[in-house]
């Protein structure tokens, strides 16, 4: 027999239980979480050289196009945020627009997708730390202790209050973007390799076969930007703060990525940047900053790449904890995970569970003697990335259907045109990513098939779970995706 939250014993759902710290986060704070999750320095130094190698000097435009696509998505997404205020973010939107079975599938996909995006990055933390230690001190650092130390550090950051995390991410984000701004200043002051050029914008350089691959990398570089709505309950004036933070994050990332890749083109010259990227992709940005600023700046870049990865891990960890909190409050996950720390007002038990999950995965890959980058990062991160792109597509469809079903005063551009166009563009993005999956993973075909199928399989598994909840826990099913103060709807 199922029971509602109100029917639970007092020790399971006390009326005076602490909640998340409301009214804490401003626009800049939420934007810090989102931009930090994207890890701009890591994306630029680690991935942009491959985009240049594949797309040539027109690669910067790929990042602009990806940013524009996600800005279109944000129009409908943020409009719906004024109507759906649940902490469940993606799955709450999808439930309202596409029904509870799809919403429950989306909830599973969000939980698995965000965990994949974070846990795999512990492999990246290990490799960047190892590379930094070797570059600065000539030391060889084993990867497992670094990953485990990262798990403890990130777990502590998530345990602390959300404003602590926002302040820490603000400092780390300034550091990682600052080093790229320093590189840009050096290149601009010295006029690049052969004078500054806007040839990256020329159609002849943009409309080339490699642009499709660049777009795949570019969409992946924005992963996690939609997590602004997860912090709604902790935001100051969420009806304004959340949309502003979303647009600020998308706008900043799109322009910053495109500008930084363009700076790399200027640093080596239109005629030599592709050759330089092919010769030493991992060292492209380090060579550039050494040439235009100095070796000391390259040393700083090594350090800030490590802190960039730490910032990304903390941002994803906080997002995962709030998803788990929302699902625990829904009754889908154990209600213990919905407990909030009385002093820090953080979902600390959800954080402990997430850290333990990460430790199990990391230790399993180490026991299998797997490579921390080629396997832990890429094999765990890739399904997470595809899962979040799929969630964005489902959310765009949900926005479109939701506003067809309810009375509202929103304009047709926000409720019809933007979500429909976003759905088409996001479907295209998913096709691009899947068709170039070998560039992301470098894995055999059989492995790539598993990595691609994993995300949709998780979503499909949510459908029998929805059926089970409807039959065995009808109270949980009936209230899934609704606000605490409203009546359940009939889907």
In CATH, the architecture is Up-down Bundle
Described by the principal axes of the CA atoms, the overall outline is: globular
- Rg calculated over all Cα atoms: 22 Å
Identify the CATH class: Mainly Alpha
Instruction: Outline the low-pLDDT stretches.
Output: 1-15
Give the name of the CATH superfamily. Answer: Amino acid/polyamine transporter I
* CATH topology category name: Amino acid/polyamine transporter I
How many β-strand stretches? 0
H/E series: HHHHHHHHHHHHHHHHHHHHH
* Range of helix content: over 70%
- What is the arithmetic mean of pLDDT? 91
The overall number of domains is 1
Give the helix/strand class.
Answer: mainly alpha
Task: List its salient traits.
single chain; 491 residues; Amino acid/polyamine transporter I; mainly alpha
